[in-house]
Write the C-alpha cells for this entry.
Amino acid sequence: MILIVKGRKRRFVGTVVFLVMLFIFAFFFRTPQALLTTSGNKLRPIYAVGTEEKKIAISFDACWGAAYTDDILIKLREHDIKTTFFLVNIWLKDYPDVAKKIAEAGHEIGLHSTSHPHFTSLSEGQIKQELLENHQMISELTGYNPKVFRPPFGDYDNKVINNSRALGYHVIQWDVDSLDWKDLSAREIYNRVIKQVKPGSIVLFHNNGKHTAEALEPILDTLQAQGYDIVPISELLLPGDYYVDHQGIQRSQS
C-alpha cells in the first residue's frame, strides 16, 4: 500500500512539473503576435490564410469513434499527403494506438481540448487546464508537441483566443466544412468541398464520418489535378507577425 501511494505521489508531482514547464515554455516561446481584427476589439481565430499560392490544408477532428481512421490514413499515404488531426483526451483514452498511428504516419497533431466543452462557458483557469492537459496527453502518447488548437464546436470569444495565444497556440477554425458528421453521401461531401476550396483554405473533416474515407480519394485526386499542394495547417500558416481580418483570414503584417 505504501508503494502504491508513493507511486501515485510521483505521478502527481511529475504531472505538476510537466504543466509548470509547459507554461514556462509557452511564455518564453510564444507564437508571433497577432493583431486585433478590423472589427474593432473582437478577435477571430484563423479560418483561412491569405495567399495566392495554390496551397491548402485539410484537417480531421477526432471526437468519437475510429472505425474509418485506418482507411483515411491509407488514402492519405497513397496520395503522399500530410494533414492535421485535432485530438481530444476523451478520444485519446479510448484510442491511444490510433493516435500513435497518426503520429507515426507523419501527420500534424493539434489540440482539441481535454473534455470537449463549450470553451466560452469556461473560466480562464479552466481554459488553460483544458489545453495543458490535452497537450500533456498528446505529448505522452505520441511524443508530438502541438502548436495549433481548434475549439470544440467552433466555440470561441476573446477570452478563449487570448488565453490560447498566451500559451503559444494558434487558434484554428475552417472555411470549408464537409459536414461529413451529418452522414452526407460521399458525392455530397465531394461536391461541398470541391466547390468551396480556394488558395489558403482550411477544410474540416472528421476521422469517423461514415462516408469521409470514401469521399476523400476523389477529393484528393481532383485537388491534386487542379495543382493544389495539400499541407498540414502549421505549414499553411504565414510566418512572422500577422493579423486576422474580419473574415478570419490570416494576413501578413508586413
